[in-house]
Amino acid sequence: MSQIQLYDTTLRDGTQAEDVALLVEDKIRIAHKLDEMGIHYIEGGWPGSNPKDVAFFKEIKKEKLHQTRVAAFGSTRRARVTPDKDQNIRTLIQSEADVVTIFGKTWDFQVREALRITLEENLELIYDSLEYLKSRVPQVFYDAEHFFDGFKANPDYALKTLKAAEQAGVDCIVLCDTNGGTMPFEIAGIVDQVRKSVKTPLGIHTHNDSECAVANTLAAVERGVVHVQGTINGFGERCGNANLCSIIPALVLKMKRECLSGEQLKRLSELSRFVYELCNLSPDKHQPYVGKSAFAHKGGVHVSAIQRHPETYEHIRPELVGNTTRVLVSDLSGRSNILAKAQEFNINLDSKDPVAMEILDKIKELENQGYQFEGAEASFELLMKRALGTHRKFFSVMGFRVIDERRHDDQKPLAEATIMVKVGGKIEHTAAVGNGPVNALDNALRKALEKFYPKLKEVRLHDYKVRVLPAGQGTASVTRVLIESGDRESRWGTVGVSDNIIEASYQALIDSIEYKLDKVEEKELSRK
User: Both 471 and 417 in a single domain?
Assistant: First the structure.
């Protein structure tokens, strides 16, 4: 069984996604991560289309990649222009990339309507371009654009375009589902027919417009394709490209195909998060394999079962892809959820301890009021420690006041918070401004406490979410606030609920600070 070659096009096709933009420096950093992962080919961009991609190919030559080859992307020559005179072809060669990948038309409809040339002229474009590149570049791949639509419309001509590429001596012919509308059963049947006519190694490049990109890719591999193209997290134009974060573990763990080592596969979740971060996008927590919720369990029956045998509700061990099992706590929880979370937080809680049921009853009561602990595990950990009497009270708030005023119509509102806190026997009374009442309260709280606890300077508020809970009371409805905070080592979530948004925010802010102080104390105790 042949090794599957992985070809990542995040840096080119992925950047065509809405809301995705990468600087040259970002692309270099992602290239290094892909290299560490063991990806065989990285498509760096289209050097003939924009200055940024030209700069990437210039800079990547200065970098040391250990196992990855860099590919430059482009198109066949223009009609009535020879390859040596075609600026696109010349730019591809000037990029000095290890590999050149060009696309050409395989659908007769596209040839007539997009290129407006004869079908025979299109075959000449394909052959001339590839033959010229093959004599000047170590490896040349051909992307047969719209191949599956073309094959369904005119199979004889679609195969002729592949034969033209084969005669030019290309190293791989990539069958593209460019519009993303082909079904897996169609992919399998068509690949079977292509393999009867074409001896050159075949690749697959699919888009996700019908939610079948991953399935189509795996179907093609099952039928003999040895080169797989896709993007990290499925980034791409419209609905995206085939998601390598789902394809790779499926190939390795489900289909037993050789492409990456087990150690490389363990870096997959980290790679996924890294690319999200550089694209300045929030990770999709429900993403298969690498998402934060991919192995998260909420129902008490599920949790009880996975504690005995993880295979009962997990299709793979999450550690194989660098992910982890998570137990969620909600009003659906059972005692097993509470015990699992206690173990996760290194809290000693016996299954027969009545405190476990006390905590469970408290959670169900709070969730009935509107609390949600699935995204606020720090608040839940504090709740457990308070119930067990193991949480130290670091400070108490004696009172606070928030003023939000707008002095002139042409000015933004000004928020100011005043707070009084007590730490030990000392009282600190201070004030701070902010760009809103919650920000002002956060600033005042930190200002008052940082004198006693300098480590709070490390804390940053990363996310603030407000949810008005359905109660039919309009502006008097109950509000739930979820806050995500973090320092240099980790992030944590806290929650507050009230019919007053400031009070709900205050509750979440207090939990965030107390959680940080609790962790600082734990670390100091462990050093002693």
Answer: no
